[in-house]
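[job 4417] fold queue: 2 targets
>>> target A
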Amino acid sequence: MAKKLPIGNRVRELREAHGAMTQSELGDAVGVTRQTVAAIEQRRYSPTLETAFRIAQVFAVPLEEVFYWQG
């Protein structure tokens, strides 16, 4: 089983709070694939800083409300 990365996130929770936004819709909004969004949510992939900021911008929240360090 793949080890989870130390950066946690609330992406799925925020998508669901935004009218059940799909992974594909979020991916289209920030310029990544649905598979990339799924990997970020499952903590198998850490997004680039630019993508992280774009995700926060889509949800109109500060970056630290989307991503956090779990070490």
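>>> target B
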Amino acid sequence: MERIEISDEALTFDQAREVAVKIAEKENEFTLLISWCDRDKGKHSPCCLKCEIKGTPAWEVYGENHEGRLRISIDKDRFVFIYS
């Protein structure tokens, strides 16, 4: 999976998501957000999973195992978006 790191502490979750989708669409004409995490609010999606593997959160395992090709991290994983 390709990984992109972005540093911008001023971004809100919605602004970070907008930046991430622009990057994902640049890389691929069709893209789908598979999983995400908002550490500020303690939320992630999918949220009902219990498949943590060796310390990797379930939402990230899900993204990697469901055709995730691009992982975009904002502010050292404050916000993370995984796209197909």
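[job 4417] complete. Note on B: The two ends are 10 Å apart (CA to CA).
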